[in-house]
Structures are given as C-alpha cells and as structure tokens.
Amino acid sequence: MVNLFARTPADNFRVMPYNLRLFAMLGLWGDRRKLYRLYVLLLLALNVINIAVLLMSIFIEMLCFSYLGNQLTEENANISHSAFNCRWYDEPIVIRKYFLRIILQAHRKATITAGKFYNVNIVTFAQLIKTSYTYYMIMKEMF
C-alpha cells in the first residue's frame, strides 16, 4: 500500500514495485497497467489531500493573525478616545502631561506588520484571499 509515513514522494515511488507485486500476487488485478494507474491515483489523491490540509492550515493561521491585528488597531483607537474623554484637564499638571503623551502616542497607528511593509488585518486578509483565488483561476485557465 501507499506508505503514509513517507517523508517525500520519492519514498512512495521506491516502494511502489513491491506494492504492485503484492497486489498482483493477491490476485486483486491481473493487468499491471490498471494496477499502476490505481497506485498513481492513490498517490495523487494523498498529495491533493496533503496540499488541501496545508493550505487550510495556512489560511486559518493567517486569519488568526489578521483578526488579532484588527483587534489591536481597534483597541488602540479606543485608548485615544478613552484618554481624551476622561476628565484629565482637572488633574495636576504632571498628570496632564502624562495624559497628553498617552493621547499623542495613541494617535500613532498600532498594527501588526508582515516584514514591516504589509499591515496584517482583516481587510488585507480579504484582499489576499481574493488575489490568491484570481491567480488560481488564471493558472487553471492556462493549464
């Protein structure tokens, strides 16, 4: 059978002759071409499943980071509004200076970035999914 614990696809192809002989000896199929096609189909099906699971896990991980980036941006905006709306102007001058620093610092946008050039949030995640699907459809049409 297909070696589910193979490290590479080449490992599966190394054990393929032994599996084909086993199938032939068991009398499951007499024609080796059909047997070979079945074996290759099993290998391709396992590769497709592995790729699908890998892509889903990547997209879920990206969604988690995007959600956290979105939450960070929203909470940063809330800090600025909360600090401004409290009665900081009735406090002593030292406290007022701290509040002004908090308000000014909170006006700078806080985001999670990928490589310091790509903001990670829900909007960019949706754009990435749309772009990936577009590239997939173009590749599907070409090949």
TrEMBL record:
GO biological process terms on file: signal transduction
Membrane topology listed for this record: Multi-pass membrane protein
Subcellular location: Cell membrane
Pfam families (alphabetical): 7tm_6 (PF02949)
Single GO MF descriptor: olfactory receptor activity
Domain of life: Eukaryota
GO cellular component, one term: plasma membrane
Residues passing through the membrane, by range: 38-60
Main location group: membrane
Assigned keywords, A-Z: Cell membrane, Membrane, Olfaction, Receptor, Sensory transduction, Transducer, Transmembrane, Transmembrane helix
PANTHER family given in the database record: ODORANT RECEPTOR, ODORANT RECEPTOR 19A-RELATED
Identification of the protein by name: Odorant receptor
Top-level taxonomy: Eukaryota, Metazoa, Ecdysozoa, Arthropoda, Hexapoda
